[in-house]
Amino acid sequence: MPDASVHSTVSPLEQAVTVLRGVGTDRAAQLEKLRIRTVGDLLLHRPRRYEDRRQFRMMRELSTDEPALARGIVAAMGLKRFRRGAKSVFELILEDGSGRLHCRWWNLPFMEHYFAVGDEVLVFGKLSGLKPRTMDHPETEVVQADEESAIHMNRIVPVYPLTEGLPQRWLRGLIRRTLEQHEREVVEPDPGLNVVGCRLPVEAGDAWVAAQPAPGTLPPVNRESTMPSRARAIRLLHCPETMADAVLARQRLALDEFVVLQRKIRQRRLRFEARSRGLPCRGDNHLIKPFLAGLGFALTEAQKRVLREIRHDMGGSHPMRRMLQGDVGSGKTAVAACAALMALESGFDVVLMAPTEILAEQHFRNFARWFNPLGVRVGMRTGGRKTSNTEPPLMPLEAPRTRQKPSLTIGTHALIETGFTTDRLGLVLVDEQHKFGVAQREQLVRKGNYPHLLVMTATPIPRTLGLTLYGDLDLSVIDELPSGRGRVRTFVRPADKLPKVWAFVGTRLDQGRQAYVVYPRVEETSGGATKAVLKEFERIQTALAPHRVGLLHGRLKSAEKESVMDGFRAGRIQALVATSLIEVGLDVPNATLMVIENAEQFGLAQLHQLRGRIGRGAHESHCILVSDIKSPEARERLRVLEETTDGFRIAEADLRLRGPGELLGQEQSGSPRFRFADLRQDFSLVQLARDLVSREAQAS
Ligand code: ADP
Ligand code: MG
At 214, is the pLDDT very low, low, confident or very high (cuts 50, 70, 90)? Predict the structure, then answer.
């Protein structure tokens, strides 16, 4: 390998960690496990937490509730091996004048080599027992009086993530020395932002630091603080003078990550616009006018506003890339229909992709009813079947040779998986976007010559995710529900109250209303689980007798599903027992009751979506979440639903409680990996990053 120093093009920060004194191949291999390969990576190694080594807890005052930092002298130590030496416990007894502390480690016999009687040891953890005062597997560090001790003592000290064999003290020393050595070059990775002077967007403090031990002792972050430079942020990250410095550092470095991401999004968008031309799809109203006249209701102001945004895009010079967000029941379908008509009026075909067959069927039914009187053909294509016994007859699957009038084709993912083509595709509508991966969406769009794209999502996406994961889509929000909707009240009940719940549901069914009963966690592929639903089904039939109860689950054949749904729509079936299949999009206004069993097994957003099936008519609706779960977190989650029906608030809560991975599911797991950014709390930082990037673009 050539000597790195002769290559002046390699910045000092891009050099491998092995250029650092004291880092050989063994250490480098350990650092690699922490994803630290270069000097720059090392300087961005984010502390896991901080310890204020100016304040210690007396051993006498340690508690079993919260972790704390103490210091003491090793009074005694010993390793005990159990049968055949396979198991062991190493015990260290520390003394600080106020009392003794027993520290124990199981099956880590080599711990013995780290300590000697008489050593001064720092220990961090919480007690597992009081008599004697004991900590199991605490974090420890031996105090050493050497020339570097100023790095490790009498100040706020960073505690880094480690890997096997890598001592905390060694890593801290390395980072500190490297920082000092490269202080000037640290400016280099600065993405060139001039944020100095930007207000720090602290809203409710920083969860990261708030989660530090003894938060009461932390100084509040000064809201008047301004952003430090990147170089200063990196210094503050590793040697903060106050905890507020650490917050500031994290936020600044998170901001840089968001800026990098926003620039990427922006560039992707620009590239896309450079190679594509918008098809002229703004329409001339000759179909929309009669459509709206026959609709039976007037569009809400929010629906009209969103339609103006869509029309503007569909007549623009670049293909529309827009996400339509609106809470359950806000009337996204009518908006989608108008968008479709704009393209159809302009002579282009439209496809609508729905995540389930049931939903595709329902859309087919609605759109056929809406569009056939206008002389527009509506076709259907799903994985389950290619022909339909519903009126009107299906259009041929392949676009006919001689071009006929433009048409709408509705389908599931089969639309992308099979050889469906159309040569004048003007608009792609994707319903319930969160069920599809970004890749699937792109695949569908590639079928045409850059058609316009409108993705609809019923689960509101928290603003932070909206601006990061979906940052390349423009956003339209329907923030108003049609008037005349009955209230939805939500209650959480334990399972032993089920008889009362069924009695209540029974009285409402007597009054002519209908009910959904949702049963979670059905592995749609396993026969055993289906049996479980069947058993539940019998139980519920008995509980609700003499009312007629139908059953809907994924293993039914399409025709069976459809006949159950028909029965429910027509009111022949009063209660529908279903898996979460009904989660999306079903629309039966007379259904005003929903019982969700084992509700804790669903995510909040999903529960909100399920609950969106009721409250669609004028009658008051009731949603009963049945759950026996005792954990405070699960209770808190369900309580969010009792308290609000605002999908955006629920989505934010879901993000906070479960994190972005859970919320988005595997399909979306392409979410960016951040070192410092935290999608749970960094909305203002994302916004700031966006502003900075667009200002930067305007300046250039
Ligand atoms: P979602 O946004 O959840 O997809 P839908 O499009 O299914 O909602 O609409 C829910 C119900 O509200 C449907 O029955 C629809 O016909 C009705 N609806 C839509 N817009 C209006 C409106 N402006 N006024 C009254 N009812 C409306
Ligand atoms: Mg819908």
Answer: very low
Could you give the CA distance from residue 552 to residue 562 in angstroms, rounded to a whole number?
A: 9
Query: Going by C-beta distance under 8 Å and a sequence separation of 6 or more, which residues neighbour residue 96?
Result: 56, 58, 59, 70, 71, 72, 73
* Residue nearest atom 9 in ligand 1 by C-alpha distance: 331
Return the ligand number nearest the Cα of 431: 2
- The pLDDT assigned to 184 comes to 62
Q: Which atom of ligand 1 is the closest one to the Cα of 335?
A: 6
In a domain, 694, yes or no: no
Q: Are 205 and 254 members of one domain?
A: yes
What confidence category does residue 395 fall into, taking pLDDT thresholds of 50, 70 and 90? very low
Q: Is the dihedral of CA 637, 639, 645, 649 positive or negative?
A: negative
The answer to whether position 181 is within a domain reads no
- How would you class 297 by CB atoms within 10 Å of its CB: exposed for 0-12, middle for 13-18, buried for 19 or more? exposed
Residues 149, 205: one domain?
no
What's the confidence (pLDDT) of residue 220? 40
Per-residue model confidence (pLDDT) at position 388: 38
| Angle separating helix axes 332-345 and 301-314, nearest 10 degrees | 30
- pLDDT for 665 beyond 50: no
Name which residue sits closest to atom 14 of ligand 1, judged by CA: 587
CATH of the domain at 327: 3.40.50.300
Expressed in angstroms and rounded, the spacing between residue 222 Cα and the centre of ligand 2 is 44
73 exposure class (CB count in 10 Å sphere: 0-12, 13-18, 19+): middle
The answer to whether residues 445 and 471 belong to one domain is: yes
297 shares a domain with 227:
no
Same domain, yes or no: 92 and 140: yes
Rounded distance between C-alpha atoms, residue 565 and residue 581, angstroms:
12
Tell me the per-residue pLDDT of 404-424, one tens digit each, with 9 for 90 and over: 788 999 988 777 666 666 678
Nearest CA to ligand 1 atom 1: 329
Indicate whether residue 12 lines ligand 1 (CB < 6 A): no
Torsion of CA 398, 404, 410, 414, to 10 degrees: 10
Q: Are 267 and 299 contained in the same domain? A: no
In this structure, the answer to whether residues 382 and 454 fall within a common structural domain is yes
Task: Please indicate whether residue 330, judged by its CB atom, sits closer than 6 Å to ligand 1.
Answer: yes
Look at residue 296 and tell me whether its pLDDT is greater than 50. yes
The whole-number pLDDT of residue 672 equals 58
Counted residue by residue, the chain has a size of 700
Residue finishing a domain among 444, 478, 512: 478
Mean pLDDT of 319-329: 87
The 10 Å Cβ neighbour count of residue 646 is: 12
Instruction: Tell me the ligand closest to 616's alpha carbon.
Output: 1
Q: Is residue 616 in contact with ligand 1, taking CB distance under 6 Å?
A: yes
| Residue-number span of the structural domain to which 225 is assigned | 187-275
Instruction: Determine the pLDDT at residue 120.
Output: 93
What is the sign, positive or negative, of the torsion defined by CA atoms of 529, 530, 534, 539? positive
Q: What span, in angstroms and rounded, lies between the C-alpha atoms of 526 and 541?
A: 23
Question: Residue 658 C-alpha to ligand 1 middle, in angstroms?
Answer: 30
Question: Do residues 453 and 412 share a domain?
Answer: yes
For residue 184, give the nearest of 150, 122, 235, 134 by alpha carbon: 235
Mean pLDDT of 620-637: 85
For residue 332, the CA-to-ligand 2 centroid distance in Å is: 6
Structure tokens at 165: 């064999």
Number of domains present in the structure of the chain: 5
Among 9, 27, 10, smallest CA distance to 18 is for: 27
Question: Does a structural domain hold residue 148?
Answer: yes
Among all bound ligands, the one having the nearest atom to the CA of 337 is 1
Q: Which amino acid is at 341?
A: L
Task: Report yes or no on 574 lying in a domain.
Answer: yes
Beta strands 591-596 and 621-626, pairing class:
parallel
What global pTM score does this model have? 0.70
Alpha-carbon span 600 to 689, nearest angstrom = 36
